[in-house]
Amino acid sequence: MHETKFAIHIHTHYSDGNASHQELVKIAEKSGLDGIITTDHNIWVEGLDGYYGEGKKKTMLLVGEEVHDRQLNPPGNHLLVIGANKEMAPFASDSQQLINQVKKRNGLSFIAHPIEDPLEMFGEKAFSWRNWDITGFSGIELWNQLSEFKSVSQSFKSAVSNALFPKRMSIGPLERTLSLWDTLIATRNQPVIAIGGVDAHELIKKWGILKIKLYPYIHHFRSVTTHILTKKPLIGNFIEDRKAVLKSLGQGHCFVAYDLPSPTDGFRFSVHTDEGQFFMGDCVRPTGGLTFQIRLPQKQHCRLFKDGKMIKEWPDREVCTHITTEPGVYRVEAYIPYKGKIRGWIFSNPIYVWN
Predict the structure, then answer these.
(1) pTM of structure
(2) β strands within 33-138, DSSP E
(3) Shortest CA distance to 181 belongs to which of 232, 276, 256, 84?
(4) How far apart are CA 243 and CA 61, in angstroms?
């Protein structure tokens, strides 16, 4: 499998961000990303998708959209639309119709910040997802870095500290979101793909003569990423490479990572069965024995979950193996110490072992 690293859920000056698409691509290149996916609010900007940069090292730009219903108070039901190649905001008032239209266009749909807390001292409302009667969406945003800021900044002191020292802020996805993800998979009996979202705006705040950039794009791009595994290396042809990236993302061949403490490149989660080897996102039949293998980029704390419950834990391992015959939904979490705290490092998409 060939690995590419993307930052997803980014806002430009077409909505409430503070950079152009071209500026963001340059920042992404400095950050070591292979690509970015922008998602401005209720607007799809046509004609900017492509490769940017010189020589062999080029950065892929995919332009998506964050669609939400402006009629709700506060505006809610935010859906990240990727790969539809059409303006989807006209369908915002009906979540199911919106998802159906995205599928009709062979696009992907991810529920943005499904659980979010308000930050009342600064007038920031919660924009959690409200309509759970929907079906057919691709997945959820498991880790949203801006939403995390709201949840861990409930006092003035913590808000100031997290704003001024962003490297000390991120701990991992909300436990409530992890639990929701496991519940969605269990109750819907279908894959629900997890992605990481930075929700980057590069917010500019002024206090008198003092002007501060909160959570600059380059910090976000070096932090929460989504690593996408394609079957073959990308070839430099944008049309073909875009197709390969979106196909793998739509199959759940990806994992959510926090690359700031240490690069997560090279992480793999697979299972060997009588029918061959399978990877994150794959659905497997429980024929014969199941040999799960986890490979971390370095020795760290690793946990294996089955149907939302931890079944095995390795405190300091690089390669972990679990042999079983039991069907279920298996996923991996890995943790790493950074700046005095244990941080979430890697969150795999599941391998689905179903009869």
Answers:
(1) 0.95
(2) 35-41, 50-52, 59-69, 76-82, 108-111
(3) 256
(4) 13
- CA–CA distances in Å: residue 72 to residues 88, 117, 327: 17, 17, 41
The token duo for 259 is 């690359």
Helix (H, G, I), strand (E, B) or coil at 344: strand
Backbone dihedral region for residue 314 (phi beyond 0: left; psi -120 to 50: alpha; all else: beta): beta
- Separation of alpha carbons 127 and 133, rounded Å: 17
**Contact in structure between 276 and 287 (CB atoms under 8 Å):** no
Structure tokens at 164: 């001024």
DSSP for residue 200 = B
The beta strand positions in 118-243, using DSSP E, are: 139-144, 193-197, 203-207, 210-214, 224-230
Per-residue pLDDT tens over the stretch 22-75: 999 999 999 999 999 999 999 999 999 999 987 778 999 999 999 999 888 877
Provide the H-helix boundaries in 68-113: 95-104
Is the C-alpha dihedral spanning 241, 247, 250, 253 positive or negative?
negative
3-state helix, strand, coil in the chain (%, to 5): 20, 40, 40
Instruction: Give the three-state DSSP class for 9.
Output: strand
Q: What is the dihedral of CA 171, 175, 181, 183, to 10 degrees?
A: 170
Q: To the nearest whole percent, how much of the chain has pLDDT over 70?
A: 98
pLDDT tens profile 116-170: 988 888 778 889 999 999 999 999 999 999 999 999 888 888 888 888 888 999 9
Could you report how far apart the first and last alpha carbons of the chain are, in Å? Answer: 26
What does the block give as tokens for 165? 């020292």
Distance CA(131)–CA(137), nearest Å, equals: 12
Contact yes or no for 264/257 (Cβ under 8 A): yes
Q: In Å, how far are 34, 219, 259, 314 from 60, measured between CA atoms?
A: 6, 19, 19, 36
What is the DSSP secondary structure assignment for residue 215, as one 8-state letter? S
Q: Residue for token digits 């332009």?
A: 63
| SS3 label, residue 71 | coil
Instruction: Give the burial class of 287: count Cβ atoms within 10 A of its Cβ; 0-12 exposed, 13-18 middle, 19 or more buried.
Output: exposed
* Model pLDDT, residue 77: 92
